[in-house]
Amino acid sequence: xxxxxxxxxxxxxxxxxxxxxxxxxxxxxxxxxxxxxxxxxxxxxxxxxxxxxxxxxxxxxxxxxxxxxxxxxxxxxxxxxxxxxxxxxxxxxxxxxxxxxxxxxxxxxxxxxxxxxxxxxxxxxxxxxxxxxxxxxxxxxxxxxxxxxxxxxxxxxxxxxxxxxxxxxxxxxxxxxxxxxxxxxxxxxxxxxxxxxxxxxxxxxxxxxxxxxxxxxxxxxxxxxxxxxxxxxxxxxxxxxxxxxxxxxxxxxxxxxxxxxxxxxxxxxxxxxxx
Length: 275
Ligand SMILES: NC(=O)c1ccc[n+]([C@@H]2O[C@H](COP(=O)([O-])OP(=O)(O)OC[C@H]3O[C@@H](n4cnc5c(N)ncnc54)[C@H](OP(=O)(O)O)[C@@H]3O)[C@@H](O)[C@H]2O)c1
Known about the structure:
Blueprint: E1 2-4, H1 10-21, E2 26-30, E3 40-42, E4 58-62, H2 69-85, E5 90-96, H3 106-117, E6 122-128, H4 132-139, E7 145-146, E8 154-155, H5 160-176, E9 184-188, E10 194-195, H6 196-203, E11 206-207, H7 212-220, H8 228-240, H9 251-254, H10 262-270
Parallel strand pairs: 1-2, 1-4, 2-3, 4-5, 5-6, 6-9, 7-11
Antiparallel strand pairs: 8-10
Helix pairs in contact: 1-5, 2-3, 4-10, 7-8
């Protein structure tokens, strides 16, 4: 039996659907499992009482980010401790591209990779590149102008569906061959890199990026969660510095099809809606 965590999320739902389509027995672990019927299993990484992994051979652990590091570390530690105690055979963890070490949310991913390495579990790490959809949304034009401070830096973004397809491939391989992908760390950045200026051109918008300081000041005026401004600023500055432009990737080797057009995916995600 396989189990996907975060199964209601945008990545987790795609992975779960892919494993179902592949005809594999798979549970949907979620804080809101009702939508999955009999396949749903209540799983809240903040609540140890819900961490029942009985009968799970392959756990696809979708990172539960979007919180302070101490919260994310505790979530991941809880579920990996439960996996160790309950005899899970293999954990497939969705991590972050190695080029992303300067991102604010990298720490929780690197900690989890180390936690896996010192566990008694078999594991595979999928170091996901930044989502093309996220790049498009962050760069989306306001009143015909792209102001996001990505500078001239390019980003090797990747379509979420490609990352889900890789996770499905790896989890399915592991389900049929316990020795497959053991101890492997796959780098899954996109295979093409593109800039906010290219996105602006595709949207027919002007590209007039503000400074990082101006953006930080603007974020301070929004009602964001306390951890969010630092997380967002790290994305702007890391892309602007060109540190996420590398396109060396295991993606083509793990996909059964050519990588999706990440630029088109980003353009669609950030396209101005109908007025
Ligand atoms: N590569 C990138 O560009 C990038 C960018 C941002 C974030 N990420 C990471 O990738 C993950 C998946 O991305 P996404 O786009 O699918 O995000 P998403 O749509 O926001 O889904 C995140 C899912 O995390 C699960 N989650 C949150 N708190 C949880 C908890 N306490 N216990 C169990 N599950 C919890 C939830 O699943 P349920 O609702 O089913 O419980 C939620 O739907 C994120 O959580 C984050 O760690 C990656």
